[in-house]
Design a protein that fits this description.
The complex is a heterodimer of chains A (361) and B (172). Chain A is an alpha+beta fold. Chain A has helices spanning 5-16, 22-44, 49-58, 221-234, 339-347; strands at 120-121, 126-134, 137-144, 155-162, 176-182, 185-191, 195-203, 206-213, 235-236, 245-249, 257-264, 276-281, 287-292, 305-307, 310-314, 319-323, 326-332, 349-355. Chain A contains five helices and 18 strands. In chain A, the strands form three sheets. In chain A, strands 5-6-7-8-4-3-2-11-12-13-17-16-15-14 form a 14-stranded antiparallel beta sheet, sandwiched between helices. In chain A, strands 1-9 form a two-stranded antiparallel sheet. The longest helix of chain A is centred in the N-terminal third of the chain and has 23 residues, at 22-44. By secondary structure, chain B is an all-alpha fold. Chain B has helices spanning 4-22, 26-42, 44-47, 53-67, 94-109, 113-124, 129-136, 140-158, 162-165. Chain B is globular, with a radius of gyration of 18 Å. Classes of the chains: A alpha+beta (361), B mainly alpha (172). At the A-B interface, helix 1 and helix 2 of A face helix 1, helix 2, helix 3, helix 4 and helix 5 of B.
Chain lengths: 361, 172
């Protein structure tokens, strides 16, 4: 035994002592679980929103690139910008390639068009961005700052959709409302003491929403208002980013079709440093997501299944396979897929040139 | 398959005790376990089907601890932890031993999260390096490296900690 082993053991054992009220633990855990299930159901009513949930679960495990210190910010000119490129103070995040063949939202572009990305931000403290794009909805999720950040919020979500598509959020009963003007168009701020929702019209056919949760409740209305206007001032809608995945599927259930895609910023210009996801819709309802994880992340495969001679990891909500040193994951958002089908799909992943439709023949 | 309620009744206490030695603040430890169990509840039908749900929950707890940045203000405290513990009845030098253990705990708590986690899994959970590696999603070599660094740090700090230095002549 090591010389200091007994000290460590006794210190840890004593630290762990004390009563544990299991029934109270069970009740509190169930409450949180029920809330989580309710949120998931709300999110899953939107195809692309499923991506946000997956991203939220795993984002904290993804290495964050270092960012530059934030410049002074103002909230007086809170409107989405149409300047041609991010400001020089934007952090060195490597984004998906610009697709110059499609018009941006500032001209004739439409949300979800061609399953590409029409949203971007020059948030000076952004450390990781996640986009999802589906037929009628796009979502940008922003993580910002580091562990020592003193900012009132460390993450927020921006959603864009057509004016005929409803907002999906379930607002609490105690929400307060305030009318604002953004870019000479009416906007509405809804807020509680810990969350804020800013709903605004980007143009005649696109509505937007910023959702931000604050770390230290209660937060005063002035802070919430300033924060959401600040976030809007960082938005960029003047270019289109490519949303593609670096693989194709040699097999999928009959009638499956690509419904949406997702991408993240990367730690380098290399394509395999980003997270790329494709959402596949099943004809019987439900969907599944296949994600190519960045190389070198914590998503290593720990095999516990073998299928067709290939090693797989079956987890409770994510199945994984290693192909040529890169991890690919399959997340079923439905129970209609059998384990055999999941394994069949996973083993049919073939690395390929980036494509927006991994099922295209 | 074990139900969520049965699992928490059977293993919840152990998870809380593990969290207490992973997290500095005892209330945050409770909060962390509730958060992890809340996540598990939402997908229990799948978790209960994996080969070793207990291993999976411990992995969730450890990974959540390492990546956890939330503050106590957002916590939901459901347990009532006493701030004192009953005295021992075996006549031992309670004051000195308590001071020694407190000092040792402070040194352990000051270690970086991954090093602290490695020591906790090795010394409190009594797991081998291969199992620790699976929980922490790293190689056994990394586990040994983390443990070696943690122990080296603790040894270096022992000399400057009076409560632990009193028995310097009796420790090899």
């Amino acid at each position: 035994m090591n010389d200091i082993d007994p000290i460590i053991v006794s210190a840890l054992r004593e630290r762990a002592e004390g009563a544990v009220h299991v029934e109270q633990l069970l009740a509190a855990s169930r409450r949180r679980g029920v809330r989580r299930v309710r949120t998931r159901k709300i999110l899953l009513t939107s195809g692309a929103a499923a991506a946000v949930l997956a991203v939220a679960v795993t984002a904290t495990l993804i290495p964050r690139p270092h960012t530059t210190p934030p410049p002074p910010t103002t909230t007086s000119s809170a409107q989405p910008s149409s300047s041609p490129s991010p400001s020089p103070s934007a952090p060195p995040l490597h984004r998906p390639a610009v697709n110059s063949t499609l018009p941006p939202l500032t001209t004739t572009g439409k949300v979800g068009e061609g399953r590409q990305i029409h949203l971007d931000t020059v948030d000076p403290q952004a450390t990781q961005l996640f986009w999802t794009s589906s037929t009628d909805r796009e979502v940008l999720q922003v993580f910002r700052g580091d562990e020592s950040s003193t900012e009132p919020y460390t993450a927020y979500t921006v959603q864009m959709h057509g004016t005929d598509v409803p907002f999906m959020d379930s607002l609490p009963a105690n929400v307060r409302e305030e009318d604002l003007t953004i870019n000479n168009r009416p906007a509405r701020l809804l807020y509680t003491e810990s969350r804020g929702w800013l709903r605004f019209a980007l143009n005649n056919y696109t509505d937007g929403q910023v959702v931000v949760t604050f770390r230290d409740a209660p937060v005063v209305a002035d802070t919430i208002r300033a924060s959401v206007l600040e976030i809007v001032s960082w938005l960029r809608v003047d270019h289109v980013l490519t949303c593609a995945v670096p693989f194709r599927l040699a097999w999928a259930p009959q009638g499956a079709r690509a419904e949406g895609c997702g991408a993240s910023t990367g730690t380098s210009p290399l394509l395999d440093s980003v997270r790329q996801t494709s959402w596949i819709e099943l004809p019987a309802g439900g969907s599944f997501a296949i994600t190519a994880f960045p190389r070198g992340t914590t998503e290593a495969v720990d095999p516990n299944r073998t299928y067709a001679g290939r090693q797989l990891e079956m987890g409770p909500d994510l199945w994984k396979i290693d192909i040529d040193g890169r991890t690919y994951g399959l997340e079923p958002s439905t129970t209609t897929l059998t384990d055999d089908q999941v394994m069949h799909i996973l083993t049919s992943i073939e690395p390929a040139e980036p494509t927006i439709d991994p099922l295209a023949r | 398959m074990i139900s969520f309620d049965d699992y928490v009744r059977l293993r919840g206490e152990r998870l809380v005790r593990l969290a207490r030695v992973l997290v500095r603040d005892r209330y945050l430890a409770e909060d962390l376990v509730q958060e992890v169990l809340g996540k598990a509840y939402a997908r229990w039908d799948r978790i209960s089907r994996v080969d070793d749900p207990d291993m999976y929950l411990r992995r969730m707890l450890v990974n959540s601890h390492i990546s956890w940045r939330r503050k106590r203000s957002s916590s939901e405290v459901a347990t009532d932890i006493p701030s004192f513990y009953p005295d021992r009845t075996d006549g031992a030098d309670i004051g000195t031993e308590t001071a020694e253990r407190d000092a040792a705990w402070r040194l352990i708590a000051d270690l970086p999260p991954k090093q602290r986690t490695t020591l906790v899994l090795r010394y409190y959970e009594d797991l081998d390096d291969a199992t620790i590696a699976r929980i922490m999603r790293c190689s056994p070599v990394t586990v040994r490296t983390q443990a070696m660094r943690a122990l080296a740090t603790l040894r270096a700090r022992l000399a400057g900690t009076p409560a632990l230095n009193r028995k310097g002549d009796t420790r090899r």
